[in-house]
Write a sequence for this structure.
């Protein structure tokens, strides 16, 4: 297994991965942008976000993106925001998505970026995603109606309590 940032040469495989992985969510009547993303949008996404993948035998298995507050699609709380989490359905249930998620949290968010916290969003009417995020230590902090097909629930995970307290003091001045 190899964890790495995505490259432009990965775009065709990345698009296929996203479309296959989000097909089940689309069948639930929930539309996430990743479900139908086109190569031009993927290039824009890669240029503005940190997109990590896990690959095995040169095949993309799972992906997770970090959207930044200064990027083209910032999260709502002034913190980096996780999104476009997907695992190829062929590899579901084998732990690859969790391995990538845990690696991104530990190696990138905590060790490299030294983040106080991170946020993410998901559809309230999705049958299992909110529970998965809660089990990973994320706490619900808000909700909003952004689209007609679902209410978005926002979650936050504090990664460093001391830095989080200091950030909160500064961000509310």
């Amino acid at each position: 297994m190899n964890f790495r940032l995505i490259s432009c040469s990965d775009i065709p495989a990345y698009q296929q991965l996203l479309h296959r992985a989000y097909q089940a969510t689309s069948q639930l009547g929930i539309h996430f942008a990743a479900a139908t993303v086109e190569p031009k949008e993927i290039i824009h996404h890669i240029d503005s976000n940190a997109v990590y993948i896990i690959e095995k035998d040169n095949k993309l298995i799972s992906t997770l993106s970090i959207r930044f507050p200064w990027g083209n699609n910032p999260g709502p709380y002034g913190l980096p925001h996780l999104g476009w989490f997907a695992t190829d359905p062929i590899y579901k249930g084998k732990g690859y998505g969790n391995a990538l998620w845990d690696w991104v949290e530990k190696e990138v968010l905590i060790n490299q970026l030294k983040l106080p916290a991170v946020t993410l969003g998901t559809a309230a009417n999705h049958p299992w995603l909110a529970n998965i995020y809660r089990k990973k230590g994320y706490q619900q902090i808000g909700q909003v109606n952004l689209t007609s097909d679902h209410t978005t629930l926002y979650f936050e995970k504090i990664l460093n309590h001391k830095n989080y307290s200091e950030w909160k003091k500064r961000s509310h001045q």
